Structures are given as structure tokens and as C-alpha cells.
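Sample entry (267 residues):
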Amino acid sequence: MLGKLIGYETKAFGRIMVPLYIAMLSFALFTGLSIRIAPGDVLSGLPGVLIGMLYGVLMLAIIIMTCVLSVTRFYKNLLGQEGYLMFSLPTDTATLIASKVISVLIWTGLSTLVAFMAIAISALGAGGLEPFREILRLLEIPEVWQNLSRLSGVLILSILMIIAGTTASIIRIYAGIAIGHQFSDHRILFSIVALIAFNFIETILSSLMNAIGFYSGLLESLSKMFEADSIQAICAAQAGAIGFTLFQVAVFGILTWVLLDRKLNLE
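Predicted structure, serialized as C-alpha cells:
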């Protein structure tokens, strides 16, 4: 059922996001070819400014629509009129929430990939294959591969940190929406208040932990444990950050589940 729900969400996202992706990549190709073909003095004037503005607008549109769909799909699909159908499906509330979070992660990843592809296509159109040949020549240097191998753990944990942080942000927003829906009026306002309260509580807790020397003590312990290997110390710190972020995911996830499973009011 989880796969079917994710597929349903993918279709809903795709109807809006795929045309934006196509527009972004097409315009990236147009931008690159324009840089290569047009004389330099032409693009240094108003046409160049307009191309840059349109490029930025498309990129911003992808970011905004990803965020908007993340929120509206959750609200309308689970807390709106569609909620009667969704909660009558032969699945549990946790699966419904998980399908929303996973779908948003997928489309956030796709949006990020499209952004990098747009940059690569622009560079390819403007300079041909030469920039990529330079990268390949750089990768042929043994020292580069050695450094990448040493940093592989840091790079992998960095990616996991981004995924965990994005998941925490999504589920925090969903928890705020679920809290706001407990009120009969001004639900959007109370959702915003709940999110502000979350941030305030996290700031207070972080300040308290800093005041009692938790962070400085942790860093000192890591430095002693991995005094001879700074890479291991960085990896340990990253692993700790991921663990703390997953704890946030669990707290906000349980809160969202309780409110939707035990306190839901679709009236």
C-alpha cells in the first residue's frame, strides 16, 4: 500500500513539477547556446539581464512549487475533504504520513538534481565539452582519488545529514499543520504559531545545552578520542548530528501520528 500511495503522490506532483523541470532544462540549454553564439557585448546589456532574471525565476518557481505542494498535498489530502477517502483505505495512519514524507523527499531530490543538470547543460552549451574534459583530467590524478577515498565517509554522512535534516523539516511542518487543525477556526494561523513555538523550544533547549557545556564537552571528548585522525572526529560529530536529527523526526512523527490517528477532526 505504501508504494501505491507514493505512486499516487508522484502523479500529483508530476503534473506540476515535470513541466517546470522541462522548462528549466530547456531554458538552461538556450542560455548556454546564447552565451556561445551571441556576441559578448549583446549579453552584457539588457538581454543578458533578462536571461539571468528568467533563469532565476524558473529556479525559484521550482523551489516554491516543491514547498507549496509539500504542504498542500498533506493538508488537502489528509485534513481536507479527501481525508474521508484516505482514512478509509486499508492502511494505517503511519503509512499515510510516511507516503507524504517519502514523496516530498523524492521530489526534493529530483528538484535538486534538475538544478545541477541545468547548471551542467548551461556550461555544456556555453563551453562545449572542454569543462568536463578538465574534470576528467583532474580525476586521473591519483592524489585526487586518494583524498576522495579518505573523505568518502564524510561525504556519505553529509548526504545522510541533508536527508535527515530535510525529513525533520517536513515532519515538523506536518506536526504544526496537525496542531493547527485541532482548532475550529484560524487553523492556518495556529499552524504558524505551532511552528514558531517548535523553533522557540528548540532554541531554548539548544541554549541550555550550550550553557551546561554539552557541546564544548562533546567536542573535547571527540578531539581526545580521535586526536590522530581528524576525519574520524568529523564523522563521529556528523553521526551524532544525524542521531539528534532522527530523534527530532521521531518526536514530530509521533506527535503528527497521535493528532491524526487519535484526535482527527475532518469537520
